[in-house]
Amino acid sequence: MNQRAQIRLAAGASLPVALAVWYVVRTALPPIAAEPMLFALQLTGAALFLAFLPVIEAVAHERLMSPAIDPLAGKDSKRLIVNQRVLQNTLEQSLVFMPGLFLVAHYADLRAAAACAFLWVIGRWTFWIGYHIGPMWRGLGVFSLVLGLAMLCYGVGCFGYELAGWTGVAALIGPFIAIETYLFAVLRRPPE
Fold first, then answer.
1. Helix count and strand count (H, E) for the chain
2. What is the model's pLDDT at position 190?
3. pLDDT along the chain (192 residues), means of 10
4. Of 160, 154, 128, which is closest to residue 141 (Cα–Cα)?
5. Per-residue model confidence (pLDDT) at position 57
6. Which residue among 59, 159, 181, 186 has its CA within the 20 to 30 Å range from the CA of 34?
7. Can you give the pLDDT at residue 72?
8. Taken in order 86, 92, 93, 94, is the CA torsion positive or negative?
């Protein structure tokens, strides 16, 4: 199996499971009576504590306890390299997840926001474990990227609709779709 097929298989297999888990968590939670922005901040803190901090610690401990203590010595183990890549990716995904979570808490409901935070953490752990199994198996956690993107698009779309109806949605979401379409078209062509 080629690498693209393997990562697609992993991602494709995990997405329906992730949707089902989100639905179960969302419907199983009792109604949450809290101020939405404070609750979103609390969820963000908990999610980053559980998904981001352990990876930071994994990198720090590996450096401290190995010849890689000198980051310029070229003695990074494969485990350290994977952990650094997961750390970088989690930082990037956090920048999509955090505002998306606040927007979901504001425009949807707090149970949906809690389910999103729970699933995002599970996705980051799955990405991390999958990466250690083999780089293409990181696709098992790709649903956390899809979740963050969906949350942010939903919230930005609601904001656009609030501002100017469907014109506002098109004005805010349209450029993103155009850029994504361009990137997919460009990256499908072989490099020159």
1. 6, 0
2. 65
3. 84 93 97 97 98 97 90 90 97 98 97 98 97 92 95 98 97 97 85 65
4. 128
5. 97
6. 159
7. 86
8. positive
Buried b (16+ CB within 10 A) or exposed e, 57-90: ebbeebbeeeebeeeeeeebeeebebbbbbbebb
Q: Is 101 exposed, middle or buried (0-12, 13-18, 19+ CB in 10 A)?
A: buried
Distance CA 99, CA 160 (A): 15
Burial of residue 100 (number of CB atoms within 10 Å: 0-12, 13-18, 19+): buried
Length of the chain: 192
Place of tokens 């101020």: 35
